[in-house]
Design a protein that fits this description.
The chain has about 400 residues and is α/β, with parallel strands linked by helices. It has two domains: about 160 residues, TIM Barrel (Alpha-Beta Barrel), CATH 3.20.20; about 170 residues, Alpha-Beta Barrel (TIM Barrel). Helix content is about 40%, strand content about 15%. A seven-stranded parallel β-sheet has the order 1-2-3-4-6-10-11. A hairpin with a 4-residue loop joins strand 8 and strand 9. The longest helix is centred in the middle third of the chain and has 29 residues. The protein is globular.
Length: about 400
C-alpha cells in the first residue's frame, strides 16, 4: 500500500511478564526488534504506544492496578527498557492509549477490578489511578528526552467533541462541561498542571488526590511534545433525559438528527473532526496527529472475490478532506493513521464482523474461517491517497 507510518503498541508483558522484573525478556526484545527492522526496511515510520489496554494482569491482581503508586516505577522501568532496546528505530512514542478512558472502563485502562474496590471508593480510585498515570507519563517523557533528545513523546486522547442538542442554555452548559472533562487529561499532560476547574470539580466531589511531594514538579517538567487523538464521531448532549440515545466509542449520547450513522449506531461527522482539530490546536498549540479514525462495517465478499466497501472510502474521504481544511486554516497536523489497516476483532463489541480494515480477513465472530487475506476496494483507493499525500481523494 505504500504506508509511510504505522501505529503499533508494545505489549508490556512481552518485555516484563509480571511487570516486576528488573531486566526485559530477551525474546520479547528480539520480537519487537524484528518488527522495527522490517518497518525500517520498508521505510515505514513507527508510532509506538507503550500501554494500550494490556498492562500485566499480575500488577492488576497484586497491586489493584494503577491505584498503587508503585506502578509508576514499574512503568518507568518498562519504558526505559523500550527506549534502550528500540530507540534507534523509534522516534515517536505515546505513553497511554486514550488516557481519559479510565472512568469509562477502569479495568481495561488502569487494571482496576471494580468488585475488589468498594462502590463508594471506585470514583476516587479512578482519579487516583489517573494521577499515577500522569506522573508515570511525565517521568517517561523526561527520561526519553534525556536518552534521545531528538525523539518525541505524545499524549493520546479520545476526542469526544460534544454539541448541545439545542440552544437551550441548559444543553449548552452540559455540552461545555462534557468538553472540559474531555480536555482535562490533555491539559495535565500538555500544560503540566491540573486545570483549576478540574481541581475544583474533584474538591466538590469530595475526591482528594494523594500526591507525592515532587509530583507537581514532575508533571511540569515532563510535558508532552505533541497531542495524538482518536476521532470516530461527535456526540450530542441534552438536559432532557427523554431524548433518543445513540451509541458511540464506549459511550452513549443523544442522537444528532443531522448526522447519518453506521450499522452500529456511531454517528458520522467529518465536520466534527475539523472542529476538533481547530479546537485542540487553538487550545494547546502543539503538533497534532490523528491516530485512530475509521468506521466499523459488515463487508461482503463478491462471487469473484472482490470486496466493494465504498462506504468506507466515503467515510475516510470526508474525514481526510476535513483534515485538509483544518490544515489550510493553520493547524499543525503532522500525521494520520486509520483504525485499522487490517481486519481484527473489534474491542467494543468483540466481533470480527465489525470490520475496519483495508484488508479483509476470512474469519467470523466465532473464529471460524481460513484467515485468508483479501484486498478491499478501499485498499487500492487508500494506496493512491498515500501516494498523493492526501491530495487525490477521487
Amino acid at each position: 500500500m505504500g504506508f509511510k507510518t504505522l501505529r503499533i503498541s508494545i505489549a508490556w508483558t512481552r518485555l516484563f511478564p509480571t511487570g516486576e522484573e528488573i531486566e526485559p525478556n530477551p525474546q520479547g526484545v528480539a520480537y519487537y526488534q524484528s518488527v522495527f527492522k522490517a518497518l525500517k526496511k520498508h521505510h515505514i515510520e513507527p508510532i509506538v504506544t507503550l500501554s494500550h489496554y494490556e498492562m500485566p494482569l499480575y500488577l492488576s491482581k497484586k497491586y489493584h492496578g494503577w491505584l498503587d503508586r508503585r506502578l509508576i516505577d514499574f512503568f518507568v522501568t518498562y519504558a526505559q527498557a523500550a527506549f534502550e532496546s528500540f530507540g534507534e528505530y523509534v522516534k515517536y512514542w505515546l505513553t497511554f492509549n486514550e488516557i481519559d478512558s479510565v472512568g469509562r472502563h477502569p479495568f481495561i485502562t488502569a487494571g482496576l477490578i471494580p468488585d475488589q474496590i468498594p462502590d463508594d471508593n471506585l470514583e476516587s480510585a479512578v482519579y487516583q489511578s489517573l494521577h499515577h498515570q500522569y506522573v508515570a507519563a511525565a517521568k517517561a517523557t523526561t527520561l526519553l528526552h534525556q536518552m534521545s533528545p531528538s525523539s518525541r513523546m505524545g499524549s493520546m486522547l479520545t476526542k469526544l467533541t460534544t454539541y448541545p442538542n439545542t440552544a437551550n442554555p441548559d444543553d449548552v452548559l452540559l455540552a461545555l462541561q462534557r468538553n472540559l472533562d474531555n480536555y482535562a487529561p490533555a491539559d495535565v499532560q500538555v500544560f503540566g498542571t491540573y486545570p483549576p476547574l478540574y481541581e475544583r470539580y474533584l474538591k466538590n466531589k469530595g475526591i482528594e488526590i494523594k500526591k507525592g511531594k515532587d509530583d507537581d514538579a514532575v508533571l511540569k517538567k515532563g510535558t508532552a511534545d505533541y497531542l495524538a487523538f482518536s476521532y470516530y464521531m461527535s456526540r450530542t448532549e441534552s438536559a432532557d433525559p427523554t431524548k433518543e440515545k445513540a451509541a458511540g466509542n464506549t459511550i452513549m449520547s443523544v442522537k444528532n438528527p443531522y448526522l447519518a450513522s453506521t450499522e452500529w449506531g456511531w454517528q458520522i461527522d467529518p465536520v466534527g473532526l475539523e472542529i476538533s482539530l481547530l479546537e485542540l490546536y487553538d487550545r494547546y498549540r502543539v503538533p497534532l496527529i490523528v491516530v485512530e479514525n475509521g468506521m466499523g462495517a459488515t463487508d461482503k465478499t463478491n462471487v469473484d472475490g472482490t470486496i466493494n466497501d465504498d462506504y468506507r472510502i466515503n467515510y475516510l474521504k470526508a474525514h481526510i478532506a476535513a483534515m485538509s481544511r483544518a490544515v489550510s486554516q493553520g493547524v499543525d497536523l503532522f500525521g494520520f493513521t486509520s483504525w485499522a489497516p487490517i481486519d481484527s476483532i473489534s474491542v467494543s463489541t468483540s466481533q470480527m464482523s465489525k470490520r475496519y480494515g483495508f484488508i479483509y480477513v476470512d474469519q467470523d465472530d466465532y473464529g471460524k474461517g481460513t484467515r485468508k487475506r483479501s484486498k478491499k476496494a478501499s485498499f487500492y483507493w487508500y494506496k493512491k491517497v498515500i501516494a498523493s499525500n492526501g491530495a487525490d481523494l477521487d
